[in-house]
C-alpha cells in the first residue's frame, strides 16, 4: 500500500457545492486522513469533551452518512488512477486501524 498516490473524493451533503477532495501520497495516509476528518467532526460536535472515543461502527456510519465518497488510487503498472467505492474505503480503514492497534 506504500507509495500509491491516493485522492479521496467526498461530498458531505446533497449540495454539489460541498464536493471536495483530499490528496495523499499513500493509501495509508488517505485512511489516516479519513479518520482525522471524522475526529475533527466529533470535536466540532463535542467541543467540551477532552478525549473522544469511537468504534469502527461509528466511523462506518460517518462514511455512510456522507452524500458520496470514493477514492482514486494510482496504479504504476498501467499509469492511471483506479476508482474505488465507499465499501473499499471502509475495508481499507478497518485494515489500517487494525494495523495501528497492533
Automatic annotation (TrEMBL):
DNA-binding keyword on record: no
Domain of life, per UniProt, equals: Eukaryota
* Cell cycle recorded as keyword: yes
One of this protein's Pfam families, by short name? ER
Q: Which PANTHER family match?
A: ENHANCER OF RUDIMENTARY ERH, ENHANCER OF RUDIMENTARY HOMOLOG
Q: Which family does it belong to?
A: Belongs to the E(R) family.
Name assigned to this protein = Enhancer of rudimentary homolog
Q: Which organism is it from?
A: Durio zibethinus
Amino acid at each position: 500500500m506504500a507509495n500509491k498516490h491516493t485522492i479521496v473524493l467526498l461530498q458531505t451533503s446533497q449540495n454539489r457545492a460541498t464536493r471536495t477532495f483530499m490528496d495523499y501520497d499513500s493509501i495509508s495516509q488517505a485512511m489516516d486522513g479519513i479518520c482525522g476528518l471524522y475526529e475533527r467532526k466529533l470535536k466540532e460536535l463535542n467541543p467540551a469533551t477532552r478525549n473522544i472515543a469511537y468504534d469502527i461502527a461509528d466511523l462506518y456510519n460517518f462514511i455512510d452518512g456522507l452524500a458520496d465518497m470514493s477514492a482514486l488510487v494510482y496504479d504504476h503498472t498501467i499509469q492511471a488512477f483506479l476508482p474505488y467505492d465507499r465499501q473499499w474505503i471502509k475495508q481499507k480503514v478497518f485494515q489500517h486501524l487494525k494495523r495501528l492497534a497492533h
